[in-house]
Amino acid sequence: MSLTPSSDRPGLHISKPSPNAPAEASAVCHCGASATATGDSHVGALVAGWNANHGTAHGKGGRL
Length: 64
Known about the structure:
Blueprint: E1 11-15, E2 24-28, E3 34-38, H1 40-53
């Protein structure tokens, strides 16, 4: 089973195969927004944006 989010299975997936490898992330929201990021700082920004504006934030007044 793939852990990569899709329009049928929205969510956020983060991977870091080893301590020396850059983190990678992909996100798909039920509102249709999607994003990908590579690199620890870029993944951190994607996660912050997801938490603030998507996922469960929709139910708490987040944007979009």
